[in-house]
Design goal:
Length: 185
C-alpha cells in the first residue's frame, strides 16, 4: 500500500519544484513510520467547480475532501493531500491555508496565500518552506492530531502567514508521541 499521495489540483500552475520539495520532506519524515510518498499527475480545478463562490472569488475547502478521499481509497493509500493554486475559504473565515479530514484521510492545501508575492515579498524558497509546513500540518490532522499550543510546532494554528513563518516544519515531542500512537494502531 502506498502511504501518502500528493496530487496537484491546478487552475493555472502548481510549481513542480514545490511538489518535489514537499514530497521529499514528507517522505523523509514519514518514512520513520513506514510510509512512502507518491506524487500523482495533476488534475484540473474544474472537477471542483461546484465549490467556487463567484462573489468571494474563492473555493470552499470542504468540497475537495470527498473527491480526494475517493481517490485515496481507490489507490489504497493511507492519506492524500491535494495541493492547489486557488484561494480557499470556509464558512465564517476569510480564507484558509488548508483543511483536513481524519475521516476521509484527505487534506487540501492552497498555495495562493503562501506565495511571497501575495504579501509583496520577493520570490524564493519561502513558498517551498510554507508549503512544507502546511502539508505537514494538514497531514497531522489527517492522522488525528489537534492544534498544538507550542508556537514552534508545525501543529500550531496559523491565523496569519506570520504564524506559518514563525513555526517550524516538524512536530514537537508531544505531537510526535501522539502521532506515533495513531500511526502504530
Amino acid at each position: 500500500m502506498t502511504g501518502i499521495l500528493l496530487i496537484p489540483i491546478v487552475a493555472r500552475e502548481v510549481e513542480k519544484e514545490v511538489i518535489t520539495a514537499v514530497a521529499n520532506y514528507v517522505r523523509q519524515f514519514y518514512s520513520k513510520f513506514g510510509l512512502g510518498v507518491t506524487s500523482l499527475p495533476k488534475i484540473s480545478i474544474n472537477r471542483f467547480s461546484t465549490g467556487y463562490n463567484e462573489i468571494r472569488g474563492q473555493f470552499l475547502g470542504r468540497v475537495f475532501l470527498p473527491v480526494l478521499g475517493i481517490i485515496r481509497n481507490e489507490l489504497g493509500a493511507k492519506a492524500i493531500v491535494g495541493i492547489t493554486d486557488v484561494d480557499l475559504y470556509e464558512e465564517g473565515l476569510n480564507f484558509i491555508f488548508g483543511l483536513a479530514s481524519p475521516y476521509s484521510k484527505a487534506a487540501i492545501v492552497s498555495l495562493y496565500r503562501l506565495k511571497p508575492e501575495f504579501y509583496g515579498e520577493r520570490k524564493g524558497k519561502l513558498l517551498m518552506d510554507r508549503a512544507i509546513k502546511e502539508v505537514m500540518h494538514e497531514l497531522g490532522h489527517v492522522f488525528g492530531l489537534e492544534h498544538c499550543p507550542n508556537p514552534k510546532c508545525v501543529m500550531h494554528f496559523s491565523n496569519s502567514i506570520l504564524d506559518t513563518d514563525f513555526k517550524g516544519r516538524d512536530y514537537c515531542d508531544n505531537c510526535i508521541k501522539k502521532l506515533r500512537g495513531y500511526l502504530d494502531d
